[in-house]
TrEMBL record:
Any single biological process term in GO: positive regulation of synapse assembly
Matches recorded under PANTHER family: PTHR45773:SF10, SLIT AND NTRK-LIKE PROTEIN 4-RELATED
PROSITE patterns per record: LRR
Membrane topology, as annotated: Single-pass type I membrane protein
Pfam families per UniProt: LRR_8
Keywords for this protein: Leucine-rich repeat, Membrane, Repeat, Signal, Transmembrane, Transmembrane helix
Keyword Repeat set for record: yes
Protein name: Leucine rich repeat transmembrane neuronal 4 like 2
Length: 483
């Protein structure tokens, strides 16, 4: 009996020893930091062995994995995040993620996945972030995301998606971020986004929509940002009357929109940022409600909206066309209204096509575009370089000519200076002065005896005269300045 107990104790000790050794194991060519394992060397064709069972984070990015097998990660039941992006995965078994129920983040982007089984992710109901972007999925079905009621972020960008079936996201009740950009979607239905009551940000840019009916989005009551730029949208409709309650940002740039109905503009009561540039705007009076509303939020980016018609205003900015041709009531660019100082608040006013609209005056200046500054700087640099190059070539190829030009310049300056001195001399008056020197303090009589006169010519004439007045000799010195 004691031997049996002793044997049991030995077995237990051996198991504990093996488990303790297993905790310390790290696969070859991997880097382990506590409970985090990084196997990103690019040489793995499969999930490496000997990964510690207490692993909470595993990165297998940038490898050559081809597929995910059933229960492939079941022995890592403590996993919280798993990165499998930038591999060559083309098949994912329906049971691949069974056994990792605690998983909260799964990254499968940049692979070759073209098909998903229903309930593939139902085994990981605690998932918060799922990234399937940059794969080859063309369709998504409701079963693909079944059971993901805690999912908050879903990335499906750049998959070539052609269709989203109805109620696809019905199970994703906690979803806040949905990226469907850069796909081939042509249409949406009213039930496409059914159940997404908490959605805050929706990306639909770079698809192939030709029209948008905002009637598709009324159930997105918490939506704050909607991106529809760079589609082929020509017309916008509103459907039944409803108002965006929390939408703050709307991007419709880079489409073929010509006009927006008054009903749609009136529904944008909460917007603080909108992008409408790069469309084919029809600058007729029908655009007045939109411009009136646009100027109330002072979104300077859209002051550059360009008219595509009618012909007389083609190529002009919409704001300039309205001001120059007075096509809107009260001339929207001259009307003044008060505005709160906060950039994220604005005055909301009802739109009535039968009554004049209140407008904010146009900005006093237009910010210079960055590309214009760069172009101007490059042009200035090239001009200076060309001038310096011409001077250098002339100096190297024609040195005599350069010396002659320099000598000519020096001679010209000398002649100019000489002429100025001559003009100064001509402008002076002749100076005459007389010096009187008395040889005696008294003069009693005047004599008629004359004395010789001496003259010296050295640019002037100086003469000395001595006259005898009685016993007094008077000496005169006469100096005449001449040219």
């Amino acid at each position: 009996m004691p031997d049996w107990r002793f044997s049991c104790l030995l077995v237990q000790a051996a198991v504990l020893l093996l488990l303790s050794e297993g905790e310390k194991m790290c696969p070859a060519s991997c880097r382990c930091e506590g409970k985090i394992v990084y196997c990103e060397s690019g040489i793995f064709l499969d999930v490496p062995e000997n990964i510690t069972v207490s692993c909470q984070g595993l990165s297998l990015r940038y490898n050559n994995l081809l597929g995910l097998l059933p229960y492939q990660f079941a022995h890592l039941n403590q996993l919280i995040w798993l990165y499998l992006d930038h591999n060559s995965i083309n098949t994912v078994d329906a049971l691949a993620f069974h056994g990792v129920r605690r998983l909260k983040e799964l990254i499968l982007s940049s692979n070759k996945i073209s098909h998903l089984h229903n309930n593939t992710f139902s085994a990981i109901p605690n998932l918060r972030n799922l990234d399937l972007s940059y794969n080859q999925l063309q369709f998504v079905h409701p079963g693909h995301f079944y059971g993901l009621r805690k999912l908050q972020n879903l990335h499906l960008r750049s998959n070539g998606l052609k269709q989203i079936f109805v109620r696809t996201f019905l199970e994703c009740r906690s979803l806040e971020f949905l990226d469907l950009g850069y796909n081939r979607l042509r249409s949406l239905t009213r039930t496409t986004f059914l159940g997404l009551f908490k959605l805050k940000e929706l990306h639909l840019e770079h698809n192939q929509f030709s029209r948008i009916n905002f009637f598709l989005f009324p159930r997105l009551t918490n939506l704050q940002a909607l991106y529809l730029q760079w589609n082929r949208i020509r017309s916008i409709s509103q459907g039944e009357h409803w108002i965006w309650q929390k939408l703050l940002k709307l991007d419709l740039s880079g489409n073929d929109i010509q006009t927006v109905p008054v009903e749609a503009v009136a529904a944008w009561t909460s917007l603080t940022t909108i992008s409408l540039a790069g469309n084919s705007w029809d600058c007729r009076p029908s655009i007045c409600p939109l411009m009136g509303w646009l100027l109330t939020i002072r979104d300077t980016k859209d002051i550059s909206m360009i008219c595509s018609g009618p012909k007389r205003v083609q190529g002009e900015r919409v704001v300039d066309a309205i001001r120059n041709h007075s096509m809107c009531p009260d001339n929207v660019t001259d009307r003044k209204t008060t505005k709160e100082p906060t950039a994220f608040t604005r005055t909301i006013f009802p739109f009535n096509p039968l009554t004049p609209t209140t407008f904010i005056p146009e900005l006093q200046f237009e910010h210079m575009s960055f590309h214009k500054i760069i172009a101007g700087s490059v042009a200035l640099f090239l001009s200076l370089s060309l001038i310096l190059l011409v001077i250098y070539v002339s100096w190297r190829r024609y040195p005599n000519t350069m010396r002659q030009l320099q000598q000519h310049s020096v001679n010209h300056k000398r002649r100019k200076k000489s002429l100025k001195q001559e003009q100064d001399l001509n402008s002076q008056l002749q100076e005459y002065y007389l010096s009187y020197h008395s040889n005696s303090e008294t003069m009693d009589s005047v004599g008629n005896e004359g004395r010789p006169c001496t003259c010296t010519i050295s640019g002037s004439i100086e003469c000395e005269l001595e006259l005898l007045f009685g016993y007094t000799t008077v000496s005169f010195q006469l100096s005449v300045s001449t040219l």
